[in-house]
Specification:
eleven-stranded antiparallel sheet, 5 helices, 8 domains, mainly beta, 1121 residues, Jelly Rolls
């Protein structure tokens, strides 16, 4: 007995020693004493501090929480922090590193490090303020093996992706990481947890539950299922059911892949396995589905095969036949509404939805301000012994913020074509639950009963909007005793072409019809006269619902019908339909063009191949040219739509080329570049969508080019810029042949697809075709002796041959250009240039309009001209158009005063500097405000904007000007809100004031003229205002414009003009140019004491100096006058 006791004691000791050897560290900091933060660490642990201050928050310390698990697990955990803003504690500023170090570890086996951590994802991942690193310390060496900013390391440690999709890992959530230490087997090391403060400020880091124990490292991925069995609900024969969502998890090394699936034919796997590679602890969701047939098993094992082992799920199901006398509608067919169902039409129709109660589709309806309905097939209730129960399943859902919906789902009934009456209404208190409904129809004895699903209307209020509505999803509809179920089929319903359709394209005509009730197949009849079927006579098509007629005669009327049949016989009283083909639109004469501006959305002679949600259409929203461009779009995956020209005859020996403009985006998203021609550089698809350009020649289609993601650079928001691209192809190799062309759009990923655009298709000779980027250039008003230069203009060659600029000429010396002699313009290229207008001294007394043309003479003997013009202002006019001033601030030459100094109310989505800052009369460009200015000239104006209270008082004050006897201040203005605004605010008042002493002392100003209050902008014109300043003739003054409002969003101002300023040469400011002015000028040159304002007009020749040369100029002016 003693020996046995000693043996047991020895075994227990060995077991204890083994357990101890397996775990080197198990530190949750729960042995810490006290209820305050302490710098005391567990035995053997150490710190390496960079922070030298006394605040324990800024170094590794053990913190205590009064409530267990409030931050990390238990009451104690390690933390390290940094100032979250520049608080003046400079010793705690970064960059710096703080180390928390374990005792020395003897890794005499393979071990794993496990620890919990928590951090601010925004500060770590977005701002890059700080991070947590783990390092192995071996002697003096340090090797960082983990960083919470390294996604691969984080995933390999077992940390899942952020469940909200915002960051790499979930913000402020406890994460558990596991690191393999087997590379250091046989060594003595320490593990360091490093708080690495990368910038000046940071945030807190939590650390807890540090465990180092023996571990056998995985050698590959390991697959694991959250459940190993599943029971499907009772299923009708022919019905398909999906399981609830199930989870596959990788509990081994990264890289788990699904390699196969084994199951009976009736069971399938709904899982996207293409490209799937699960990381450590990463999961993937999937569903199984079961399709019940007469022979499908009710119990089976299904196996998901992976490179980390196979996993098995045991599946069971109870199946049963549809009750005798009933028809089961599951909405799974290709046609909607199903055969015999009739949709009530309207805006908010019943529809088929993939959010299914069973199978892949269900019937769905949601609330609207009008009721909507769908009628079910006719029922025969005349046999009292036949089934009389109408059954279905539905699910109702409502916005989580609402309790009850305003709309009800109803079942209504109509007897013998009479009015519909309600026989059942949904329970509005039962939301978000599956409800099985059974309605007894035994009260009806007719053979003509029609049931209706009706969705009642919701009330709409202009102020509060529509009442809360429910979405109803309906499925598993069991209909008793369908009328005519034992007889011949019902007639089919026409789909396309529409009955009596005209101008039908004569190739590949798709004849289609809807499924007929009880039909097993269809016979097609087609001919060129009524009831005469000499083209197709009774062709048995089986159960298909379309037939494609390869070719038909031009300008011919065709008659056709479809006769459904079943084992009982053929449908009776089937209708005959009619369509007429197009005339022959073959292009036999060149040149030829199509700009899509005609009356037909798809031009006559063109063929459009499309599906319901993938098609070409004509768009008038930001077209490339004219009123319309063609646009393709798709809300489907792997769908194609094409647009094909008529046949084109290319004469033998001809040298033609086809050109067009296109882009891989919708017209509204494509940029028209007036400065250069952009061409397409695409060579392959990008996997999202693409447009192909093909030619049909020698009986087959041949691809000539494609365009896919033709982006060039990024805009200021970082979004890619896509331009309208010019495309041209030489057709000389096809001379003597009849060809056709098509543009084929395909969407691979409808959620990211961009669409396609097309415009201005031309076939013409391969010569030179030059065009300017603008129709003309007008310099508008230019002050005397000043120059106005255009923006970048372009001369583009859209022909097939290069051309050289021989010379560029103007009639007037006021104009010049940077387009140089010898410039070569290649095909599909542009020469960029500017035009300048120098007002010189063209207007000696009055403003002069100068009209000219820029004529470009070319190497091919031709020339092109660009109309140009400018208004040279008289010397006594000073004009400000603000076109060259910086936006988001006041204009040059003026002082702006923001009286309240409050921040302006920010303009959402407007993008200009200082948006929301205190501003007064700031410059704004049309491109920064969605073209909201609608100004009379140019692209920039001034704006005054309210503060958050809807008020402002803003001033803009001119530099000092010399007033003459007829001087006026004129400008244009408009209120921001227009007559089309909804519930507009008030408009501002504007006042003009004058000061003779100061530009900034508002008390020194005196009002001139009347205060003006504009009406709401009417989109027709700005208000033009003029103020007489002549009462200050002979004086130098400051002119101010004050805008003030108490309930106004803002206003725009432009075209400031001071007219009839003090006369040039009127040195003594008496309003006339005379000999007395010569005497005054001589007095100035002799440094005699003269009035200060005389100095303003003494520089007669405008060279910036007052000298004897001004006397000569003044003598000339006196003689002229």
């Amino acid at each position: 007995m003693k020996k046995i006791y000693m043996l047991l004691t020895a075994l227990m000791a060995l077991t204890a020693m083994g357990a101890s050897a397996q775990t080197l560290i198990d530190e949750g900091f729960e042995n810490t004493r006290g209820t305050v933060t302490t710098s005391e660490l567990p035995d053997g642990w150490s710190r390496r501090d960079t922070y030298t201050g006394d605040n324990l928050n800024y170094k590794w310390a053990i913190h205590h929480n009064a409530t267990a698990g409030s931050s990390m697990s238990g009451f104690y955990y390690a933390t390290c922090d940094a100032p979250t803003y520049a608080n003046g504690v400079t010793a705690a500023y970064g960059p710096r590193k703080e180390y928390l170090i374990t005792p020395e570890l003897d890794l005499n086996d393979t071990y794993q490090l496990q620890f919990d951590w928590e951090a601010a994802a925004y500060g770590v991942l977005t701002q890059g303020l700080y991070t947590l690193q783990v390092a192995i310390l071996e002697g003096d060496s340090e090797e960082v093996i983990f960083d919470i900013t390294n996604e691969e390391q984080v995933r390999d440690s077992g940390v899942p992706a952020d469940i909200y999709g915002s960051y790499m890992w979930t913000n402020w959530a406890i994460q558990t990481s596991k690191l393999d230490l087997s590379p250091w087997q046989g060594k003595k090391v320490k593990v360091a947890f490093i708080y690495n403060l990368l910038k000046q400020t940071g945030n807190i880091l939590y650390l807890d539950n540090i465990i180092i124990k023996q571990h056998r490292p995985e050698t590959g991925p390991i697959a694991e299922l959250a459940q190993t069995s599943y029971e499907f609900p009772t299923t009708y024969i022919g019905e398909k059911f999906y399981s609830e969502q199930m989870t596959l998890k990788n509990v081994g090394l990264k890289g788990l892949k699904v390699t196969g699936f084994e199951a009976p034919e009736c069971i399938g796997l709904a899982m996207d396995t293409v490209g799937m590679s699960l990381g450590v602890n990463e999961t993937a969701h999937f569903q199984l589905y079961y399709k019940a047939t007469l022979t499908s098993p009710t119990e089976a094992d299904v196996t998901i095969k992976t490179n980390g082992g196979d996993v098995t799920i045991h599946v069971t199901v109870t199946k049963e036949a549809v009750p005798e006398g009933y028809y089961l509608e599951l909405f799974e067919g290709d046609q909607f509404p199903p055969a015999g169902w009739v949709d009530g039409g309207g805006i908010n129709q019943f529809r088929r939805t993939p959010y299914a109660l069973e199978g892949d589709y269900s019937l769905s309806t949601s609330g609207f301000i009008e009721a909507n309905h769908i009628d079910l097939p006719r029922l025969d209730m005349s046999d009292p012994d036949a089934p009389h129960q109408f059954m279905f399943t539905y699910y109702a859902s409502i916005n989580a913020d609402e309790e009850y919906p305003a709309n009800d789902l109803q079942v209504m009934a109509s007897v013998d074509g009479g009015p519909f009456t309600t026989i059942w209404t949904s329970d509005y208190t039962k939301m978000d639950t599956l409800i099985n409904v059974s309605i007894d129809l035994s009260r009806f004895t007719t053979d003509s009963l029609v049931l209706r699903f009706n969705n009642t209307e919701c009330y709409y209020d202009e102020e509060y909007g529509m009442d809360p509505d429910a979405q109803y999803i309906i499925d598993r509809v069991l209909l008793p005793n369908l009328y005519g179920a034992d007889g011949v089929p019902m007639p089919a319903t026409l789909v396309a072409p529409a009955d009596s359709a005209v101008n039908v394209y004569n190739k590949n005509i798709t004849l289609s019809w809807s499924e007929a009730q009880f039909a097993q197949g269809y016979k097609l009849y087609l001919g060129k006269a009524e009831n005469t079927y000499d083209v197709i006579n009774g062709l048995d098509l089986g159960n298909v619902l379309t037939y494609t007629l390869a070719t038909a005669d031009n300008a011919t009327q065709y008659h056709w019908k479809v006769v459904p049949y079943n084992s009982v016989g053929e449908a009776q009283d089937v209708p005959e339909w009619v369509f007429t083909t197009q005339a022959d639109y073959t292009v036999a004469e060149l040149p030829w063009s199509e700009d899509f501006e005609g009356s037909q959305a798809i031009p006559l002679g063109w063929f459009h191949e499309y599906s319901q949600y993938t098609k070409w259409s004509r768009s008038d929203y930001y077209p490339m040219d004219g009123k319309y461009s063609m646009m393709a779009y798709s809300n489907e995956t792997e769908k194609t739509t094409s647009l094909t020209t008529p046949d084109v005859v290319l004469p033998a020996g001809s040298e033609n080329h086809i050109s067009f403009w296109w882009g891989n985006d919708r017209p509204v998203s494509l940029t028209k570049d007036s400065e250069q021609v952009h061409v397409n550089h695409s060579t392959a698809e990008d996997g999202i969508d693409a447009v192909f350009f093909d030619i049909f020649v020698d009986g087959q289609w041949k691809q000539l080019s494609l365009i896919s993601n033709n982006s060039e650079g990024e805009d200021e928001d970082g979004e890619p810029i896509r331009y309208w691209a010019y495309e041209s192809h030489d057709l000389s190799q096809y001379a003597g042949k009849t060809v056709a062309f098509r543009w084929r759009y395909i969407s691979h990923n409808y959620s990211r697809s961009r669409g396609a655009s097309l415009d201005n298709v031309k076939i013409e000779g391969a010569g030179v075709e030059l065009s300017f980027s603008v129709d003309g250039w007008h310099a508008y008003k230019v002050n005397a002796r000043q120059t106005e230069t255009s923006g970048t203009l372009a001369l583009s060659n859209l022909g097939g041959s290069p051309v050289t600029v021989q010379s560029v000429t103007f009639e007037n010396p006021n104009f010049s250009t940077t387009l140089a002699e010898g410039t070569v313009i290649e095909p599909a290229a542009s020469a960029q240039f500017t035009v300048s207008f120098n007002a010189m001294t063209s207007a000696a007394k009055d403003s002069v309009a100068i009209v000219d043309a820029m004529t470009v003479n070319l190497s091919d003997g031709n020339s092109v001209s660009l109309p140009v013009s400018g208004l040279a202002l008289a010397p006594d006019i000073k004009y400000y158009g603000f076109e060259h001033d910086a936006t988001g601030e006041g204009p040059a030459g003026f002082t702006v005063i923001d009286v309240d100094r409050q921040s302006t109310s920010p303009l959402t989505f407007w993008n200009f500097p200082n948006n929301g800052a205190p501003l007064s009369f700031f410059v704004l460009n049309d491109s920064q405000c969605y073209n909201s200015l609608k100004e009379p000239h140019g692209h920039q104006s001034l704006m005054t904007r309210c503060n958050s209270n809807g008020t402002f008082e803003d001033w803009i004050v001119s530099d000092k000007i010399q007033v003459g006897k007829n001087t006026k201040f004129e400008f244009d203005m408009r209120n921001w809100e227009s007559v089309n605004s909804i519930m507009p605010a008030s408009t501002p008042t504007v006042t003009v004031l004058v000061s003779t002493t100061s530009a900034t002392n508002r008390n020194s100003f005196t009002q001139v003229g009347d205060t003006f209050k504009p009406e709401l902008f009417n989109e027709l014109a700005w208000d033009h205002l003029s103020y007489d300043l002549s009462q200050y003739a002979g004086q130098s003054v400051y002119v101010a414009l004050k805008a003030q409002a108490d309930n106004c969003l803002g206003a725009f101002y432009d075209n400031f003009e001071f007219v009839y300023l003090g006369l040039r040469g009127d040195v003594n400011c008496d309003g006339e140019v005379s000999v007395a002015d010569i005497t005054a000028l001589v007095s100035i040159l002799l440094d005699e004491d003269v009035p200060e304002e005389w100095m303003n007009n003494a520089d007669v020749n405008g060279d910036g100096e007052i000298s004897i040369a001004d006397v000569t100029s003044l003598v000339s002016l006196v003689v002229e006058n």
